[in-house]
């Protein structure tokens, strides 16, 4: 009787060990949400690619404590309803971390749902100051809008000697664009400059920019300020150059992708932008990232969104690896605090906001060049 049971008992014990082994090796699921269709697609796709590269590299080295990473990607279509729906899908997967979104308007739309869960967001590119200094489930790896807008305003007034500015901005992402505009205005006028006018528009395929730009330039401003996605910014800059070929132009960091230069062509020459991404960075880790990105994605050059997606994912992975038993991922990330990005170190403070150097860049000969400012 006992002998007859021995093989069965042995098989049951083996099965339990095998089950335990499989359970221990379940993948660590990470979500990604970003606009990968429509007029902001270059930002979302580039950010996703940076996330993909970081995860593939980590998996090639054995994953997180022996567990592979699995990426679940969702397109928010730059639509609040869609964003909330796809976030709900990710939350059903019991995911602890979502990398994204890529724009401030989408972050504002989904944050109530995120804050009602145990999941945290770590955004590569959301900068709106309206999300700063809050103890919530939102973290980011780039500085807030104020840093970029104030740096741009100071550079234009002090270095470029501009005294009047007219701005055009996208109302579809007003959580970002209006804050950026107001921060720039406050800094520029504090220095002694004057905002002549600020014209909002709703981004879309049917938007006609010719008359908007004509009105923008009617007061002959020293500077035209464009706060829009790369597609719209490219069209606007072309219209500006048609009406005023020598007009000085500044951009917020949002449109400063390679797609903008591709669309604007020669009209982009001489445009200034404040950003955290230095395409001429000589750090060895950036060279490795750039080479790996170009190899993985068919020779494409990584833009700021790709770098930010990569840095955000590596920071998140470090949190998974270094947290103590029972420690929430958010607390682990805040405890670690300082992270090494591909180009530079950055700090995430107790509110989940990032401290990171910013630069002024200018478009020259079809590429961005960082200035010493």
Question: In words, what does this structure look like?
Answer:
There is one protein chain. Residues about 1-5 and about 15-25 have low confidence and may be disordered. Helix content is about 45%, strand content about 20%. The protein is built from 12 helices and 15 strands. It is an alpha/beta fold and about 375 residues long. It has 2 domains: about 30-145 and about 280-355, Rossmann fold (3-Layer(aba) Sandwich); about 145-275, Response regulator (Rossmann fold, 3-Layer(aba) Sandwich), CATH 3.40.50. The longest helix has 23 residues, at about 1-25. The chain has helices spanning about 1-25, 40-60, 80-90, 105-115, 145-160, 175-190, 210-215, 230-245, 260-265, 285-295, 305-320, 330-335, and strands at about 30-35, 70-75, 95-100, 120-125, 140, 165-170, 195-200, 225, 250, 270-275, 340, 345-350, 355, 360-365, 365-370.
């Amino acid at each position: 009787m006992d002998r007859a049971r021995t093989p069965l008992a042995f098989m049951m014990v083996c099965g339990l060990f095998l089950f335990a082994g499989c359970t221990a090796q379940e993948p660590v699921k990470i979500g990604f949400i970003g606009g990968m269709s429509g007029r902001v697609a270059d930002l979302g796709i580039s950010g996703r690619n940076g996330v993909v590269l970081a995860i593939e590299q980590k998996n090639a080295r054995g994953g997180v404590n022996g567990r592979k990473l699995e990426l679940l990607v969702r397109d928010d279509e730059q639509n609040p309803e869609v964003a909330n729906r796809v976030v709900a899908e990710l939350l059903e997967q019991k995911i602890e971390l979502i990398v994204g979104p890529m724009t401030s308007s989408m972050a504002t739309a989904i944050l109530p749902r995120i804050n009602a869960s145990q999941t945290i967001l770590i955004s590569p590119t959301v900068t709106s100051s309206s999300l700063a200094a809050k103890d919530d489930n939102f973290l980011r790896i780039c500085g807030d809008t104020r840093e970029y807008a104030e740096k741009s305003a100071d550079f234009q007034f002090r270095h470029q000697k501009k005294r009047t500015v007219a701005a055009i901005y996208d109302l579809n992402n007003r959580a970002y664009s209006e804050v950026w505009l107001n921060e720039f205005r406050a800094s520029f006028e504090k220095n002694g400059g004057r905002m002549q006018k600020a014209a909002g528009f709703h981004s879309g395929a049917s938007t006609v920019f010719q008359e908007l730009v004509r009105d923008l330039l009617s007061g002959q401003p020293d500077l035209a300020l464009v706060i829009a996605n790369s597609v719209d910014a490219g069209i606007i800059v072309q219209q500006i150059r048609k009406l005023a070929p020598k007009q000085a132009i500044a951009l917020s960091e949002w449109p400063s992708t390679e797609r903008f230069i591709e669309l604007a062509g020669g009209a982009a020459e001489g445009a200034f932008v404040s950003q955290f991404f230095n395409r001429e960075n000589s750090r060895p880790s950036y060279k490795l990232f750039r080479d790996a990105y170009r190899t993985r994605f068919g020779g494409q050059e990584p833009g700021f969104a790709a770098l930010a997606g990569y840095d955000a994912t590596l920071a998140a992975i470090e949190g998974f690896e270094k947290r103590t038993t029972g420690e929430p991922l958010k607390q682990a990330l805040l405890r670690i605090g300082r992270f090494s990005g591909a180009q530079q170190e950055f700090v995430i403070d107790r509110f989940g906001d990032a401290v990171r150097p910013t630069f002024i860049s200018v478009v020259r000969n079809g590429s961005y060049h960082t200035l010493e400012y």
